[in-house]
Amino acid sequence: MNILSCEGLTKRFEEANKEPLTIFENIAFDLKQAEKVAIVGRSGSGKTTLLNILGGLESATSGAVRLMGKDITQFNEKEKGHIRNHQLGFIFQSHHLLPEFDAIENVSMPLLIRGMNPYEVKKLSIEMLKKVGLADRETHKPSMLSGGERQRVAIARALVTRPKLVLADEPTGNLDFQHTQQVYQIMLGLMQELETSFVVVTHDLELAGLMDRTLKLQKGQLA
Ligand SMILES: Nc1ncnc2c1ncn2[C@@H]1O[C@H](COP(=O)(O)OP(=O)(O)OP(=O)(O)O)[C@@H](O)[C@H]1O
Ligand SMILES: [Mg+2]
């Protein structure tokens, strides 16, 4: 079964007294388990909009987004929240960590939301921080971490739930070359281990080349 399957996906912004603005139309694509795809395209082509729709963070004008066979465009907010917490991981350009919480607490958050036993959660979170090379930064708050370290905490938080699919929007957009390489190595290594499917929006063609496929969003079409 496909992890992700889109069909006839269209996004249009409509405002009164204005021509409707079509961002993309009739997009279709499939993603298998453990498959990794890059989405490239110029600024404003709709990459973030598409990624947000794939994750149920934004609604489509029409079309279907099937996650493990279920069309999430038909889900209500509660059902979307549930599938996001159980099947999806998000990594954004800016880490979106909670500033008042330390690294372990940030990584723990999605598991605590599930209502998992706090002792078990702490164990899993520490294990995941080790995997991203931050065993000695567990009690650091985001302000006490470097940009690359923050992004690695965000990766640990996205993967601690062992999601089927990770969606990332320019995950290394704020990092220099060296940290970009390091973050990608850690991220891809972990996803290989967990057999996670991956959709990443990036401007970096070299990084896109590390994926199984690259799709280009251009003039409202994905090719
Ligand atoms: N709420 C909105 N109303 C109208 N137009 C919008 C709205 N949100 C986004 N857009 C338009 O949709 C287009 C696609 O935006 P999006 O953020 O998806 O682009 P992107 O490919 O991610 O660009 P970048 O590479 O700069 O991040 C843009 O032209 C933007 O102006
Ligand atoms: Mg964007």
Topology:
Blueprint: E1 4-13, E2 21-31, E3 36-40, H1 47-54, E4 62-67, E5 70-71, H2 77-87, E6 88-91, H3 103-113, H4 118-131, H5 147-159, E7 165-169, H6 177-194, E8 197-201, H7 205-208, E9 213-218, E10 221-222
Helix pairs in contact: 3-4, 3-5, 4-5, 5-6
The structure holds adenosine-5'-triphosphate and magnesium ion (MG).
Descriptive account of the structure:
It is a single chain. This protein has 223 residues and is α/β, with parallel strands linked by helices. It has a single domain (4-222), classed as P-loop containing nucleotide triphosphate hydrolases (Rossmann fold, 3-Layer(aba) Sandwich). It is built from 7 helices and 10 strands. The protein has helices at residues 47-54, 77-87, 103-113, 118-131, 147-159, 177-194, 205-208, and strands spanning 4-13, 21-31, 36-40, 62-67, 70-71, 88-91, 165-169, 197-201, 213-218, 221-222. It has a 6-stranded mixed sheet. The protein has a 4-stranded antiparallel sheet with strand order 2-1-4-5, covered by helices on one side. β7, α6 (177-194) and β8 (197-201) form a beta-alpha-beta unit. The longest helix is centred in the last third of the chain and has 18 residues, at 177-194. Residues 47-48, 169 line the site of magnesium ion.
